[in-house]
Design a protein that fits this description.
mainly alpha, globular
Length: 121
């Protein structure tokens, strides 16, 4: 039941374009006691149907600029290969800490952006 709830909220976040992995990976590690490498694998596999579904909806609503997609996808594939190879050699504890720091920095960035965007209006 817990895993289904985690998946549901990850799907909502992923459908909004914010990356369901930001919810799914920490939730699987913290609440379901799953190894970070396994959680990352689960996130990648589960994101395929969620991403395809969200993609069709965003294309239907004309929210996709195809000219930006090709370079982002190509460099994203290269980054995914590099990251996967790197993850094979890193300890799970290092990955856990690195992902935590990444989420913390993203959170700080979003807070900063919220304050400055509010002041500009």
């Amino acid at each position: 039941m817990l895993v289904g709830i985690i998946g549901f909220f990850a799907g909502i976040i992923g459908g909004m374009g914010m990356g369901g992995g930001t919810i799914l990976i920490p939730a699987l590690v913290l609440f379901a006691s799953i190894d970070p490498k396994l959680a990352q694998s689960i996130n990648l596999i589960s994101s395929i149907p969620m991403t395809i579904t969200a993609l069709f909806i965003h294309i239907k609503n004309k929210n996709v600029e195809f000219g930006l997609v090709v370079p982002i996808a190509l460099f994203g594939i290269a980054g995914a290969i590099a990251g996967s190879l790197l993850a094979e050699y890193l300890n799970s504890e290092i990955l856990r800490k690195a992902f935590g720091i990444f989420l913390f920095l993203i959170g700080l960035f979003e807070i900063k952006k919220g304050f400055f965007d509010k002041n500009e209006k």
